Amino acid sequence: MIRGIADELVLIDAVQERAVGEVMDLNHGLSFVRPMKIVSGSYSDLAGCGVVVIAAGASQKPGETRLALLARNAAIFREIVTQVVRHNPGGIILVATNPVDILTHISLKETGYDPARIIGSGTILDTSRFRFLLGQYYGVDARSVHAYIVGEHGDSEIPLWSLATIGGVRLQEFAPLAHKAYDRAAMENLFHAVRDAAYEIIKRKGATYYAIGLGLVSIIEAILGGHRSVLSVSTLMSGQYDIDDVCLSLPCVVGARGIEEVLTLNISPEEARGLQQSADTLKSTYASLIQQKEP
Ligand SMILES: NC(=O)c1ccc[n+]([C@@H]2O[C@H](COP(=O)([O-])OP(=O)(O)OC[C@H]3O[C@@H](n4cnc5c(N)ncnc54)[C@H](O)[C@@H]3O)[C@@H](O)[C@H]2O)c1
């Protein structure tokens, strides 16, 4: 809405009154931005939508295991994607609900879509957190930092130090320009702050909203504008770094057709091993989900 990238926005929620309330709140800001139509609706209103963002999800019940919650969210997802595909078969689906890599994979299996058309928000947010913290540490604009977090959006994600640059300059060479020595331990701590950021925010305010919202907008903008932006998002692996049949994040070219290319960059052997371990973690979660009898 603020960026003026869409002509129309439809909000759908199982609790319809919530969608109505959100729409009222958004519409009351329309006098400050470019005109557009914002409505609450049902799945049939999705016909012709360019991008459908799925951020619906159940939250953990007291005593519920993560796997049981995942099984519940997987069931919700199967129901939602079926409806989305029925009413909007030509669109692109952007998944944000957690665990995002697993739910992206389930959406792919359920719809049988070309993997290019189902995108998980993946590590778009983690990469942005990484760039912000590196920018803060070296005293530069976060937009001048190029660095990626890849793998799972979660505990097994990994930073690609070998490709991290500021203004095209490797961190080791940039450090003296910022009057610092390159400090590996400080960099490790910085990555831990990225990886654990969601826990820190949820502890304080219950959920994360703003940065993920901006991350989703950057993906949608790349699709609707056909920008071919390089973004770290979750997609189905097909042999990259010897990884197959699992969804995780790598830098991808995102444009009008969704994921137009998955970039296999020249990373270090240690990073490739980290990525493979992250893939194994996701594979075993996916396998236990499939084995578990869903409620
Ligand atoms: N990928 C990321 O980086 C990222 C970042 C932030 C949040 N998230 C995830 O996004 C999800 C939503 O977070 P939130 O804070 O907005 O939660 P929330 O509880 O505020 O909103 C979830 C909404 O989903 C709706 N819902 C539940 N079942 C539904 C169904 N079957 N059909 C339609 N709507 C349904 C609920 O009514 C609720 O309004 C969570 O899974 C959260 O972990 C992901």
Verbal overview:
There is one protein chain. With 295 residues, this protein is of the alpha/beta class. Helix content is 43%, strand content 20%. The chain has nine helices and 13 strands. The strands form five sheets. It has a three-stranded parallel β-sheet with strand order 3-4-5, with helices on both faces. Helix 2 links the parallel strand 3 and strand 4. The longest helix has 23 residues. The protein is globular. The chain binds nicotinamide-adenine-dinucleotide. Nicotinamide-adenine-dinucleotide binds next to helix 2.
Measure the end-to-end span. Answer: 38 Å
N-to-C SSE string, H for helix and E for strand: EHEEHEHEHEEEEEHHHHEEEH
Helix content: 40-55%
Unreliable residue stretches: none
Can you count the beta strands?
A: 13
Q: Within the largest sheet, what's the order of strands? A: 3-4-5
Could you tell me the radius of gyration in angstroms? Answer: 19 Å
Number of H/I helices: 9
Bound ligand species:
nicotinamide-adenine-dinucleotide
Oligomer: single chain
Query: Mean pLDDT score, rounded?
Result: 95
Category from helices, strands and their pairing: alpha/beta
Q: What can be said about the biggest beta sheet?
A: 3 strands, parallel
Proportion of β residues? 15-25%
Judging from the principal axes of the Cα atoms, what is the shape?
globular
Summarize, please.
Helices cover about 45% and strands about 20% of the residues. It is an alpha/beta fold.
Give short descriptive properties of this protein:
single chain, alpha/beta, 9 helices, 13 strands, globular, binds nicotinamide-adenine-dinucleotide
